[in-house]
Each structure stands twice: as C-alpha cells, then as structure tokens.
Amino acid sequence: MDVYENLKRDGYKIPQMLEAKGLYLPVNQTGNLVYLSGQGSIENGVNLAGRVGVDVTLEEAQHAAEVCMLNTLAALENYLGDLNRIKKVIKILAFVAGADDFTQQAKVVNAASQVLISAFGENGKHARSAIGTNNLPLGLTVEIESIFEVK
C-alpha cells in the first residue's frame, strides 16, 4: 500500500508545508511517536476563516478540516521525507470555531478523518476528539493537532 497512490486515487494533493506562526516546533518526535502542532485551515496562503453557523457553512467547515489534514501530511512529509514511514495514526485533536449553538463538530472533523483513512487504510483509523470553540488563531475555522507512530 503506497500512501501517495492512495491519496492520488482519492483526489487528494499534498500542499507546501505551512510555516510556523509562533515559537514552536511544527513536528516533535520522541521514540517512535511523532507529535504535530496544530495545523490550521490555510489553503494556498488563504486563511479559511470564520465560525460555522455564523459565516461558514457545514460543508465549508468540512473542507477546512480536510485542508488541515493535508497540511498535517505536508508537515509530516517534510519531517520524515516519506509518508510511507507512517505505521499508524494514533490520535487527532480538532478544534472547530462555531456559533454558540453549533454542535456538529464531529461531522466537520469526519472530513479530516477521511483523509487519513484514505491515505493509510486500516492504519489510518484513530482515536479522536472534536472540540467546539468560539475563536481560533488567525480567525481560522479549524485547527487540528495529531499523533502518529512511525516505522
């Protein structure tokens, strides 16, 4: 199973890695676990911003979550050199900016989970939390941090 072929098959393209927006490491490894700092919904230099249920639709937020996960893969590829070194996706923690009464964070984050399952098959299935918030850095709609096991 080649991760790049899987992504191509399902129409996903890995973007350029995002630059860190603060004093942190985008990727940090200990042993065989790789931790990724939050990857935001930034696509081709454009901030996908706004709150779901206020000025962003559910579908737009799902696209933003997908973009976050593709940005995650870009950071991993930059760090590891080859995404086929990923053994298993362990966990993702997603933050979704939404209206006070928005409760469909899980539906938003499903789009990010789908990217991982498409890329890594059974090894892409992961533990997950989807948290609602009123605001994210840069006004972004979604931010996702993650943990991967490497070979």
Strand-helix topology:
Blueprint (H helix, E strand, L loop, with lengths): L2 H7 L17 E4 L2 E8 L1 E2 L2 E2 L10 H23 L5 E12 L7 H16 L6 E7 L8 E9 L1
Parallel strand pairs: 5-6
Antiparallel strand pairs: 1-2, 2-7, 3-4, 5-7
Kindly describe this structure.
By secondary structure, the protein is α+β, with helices and mostly antiparallel strands. It has helices spanning 3-9, 58-80, 105-120, and strands at residues 27-30, 33-40, 42-43, 46-47, 86-97, 127-133, 142-150. Helix 1 (3-9) crosses helix 3 and helix 2 runs parallel beside helix 3 (105-120). The radius of gyration is 14 Å and the shape is globular. The protein starts with a helix and ends with a strand.
Compute the CA-based radius of gyration: 14 Å
Strand fraction: 25-35%
CATH architectural name: 2-Layer Sandwich
Described by its quaternary structure, the protein is single chain
Envelope shape: globular
Top keywords for this entry?
alpha+beta; 60s Ribosomal Protein L30, Chain: A; five-stranded mixed sheet; two-stranded antiparallel sheet; 3 helices; globular
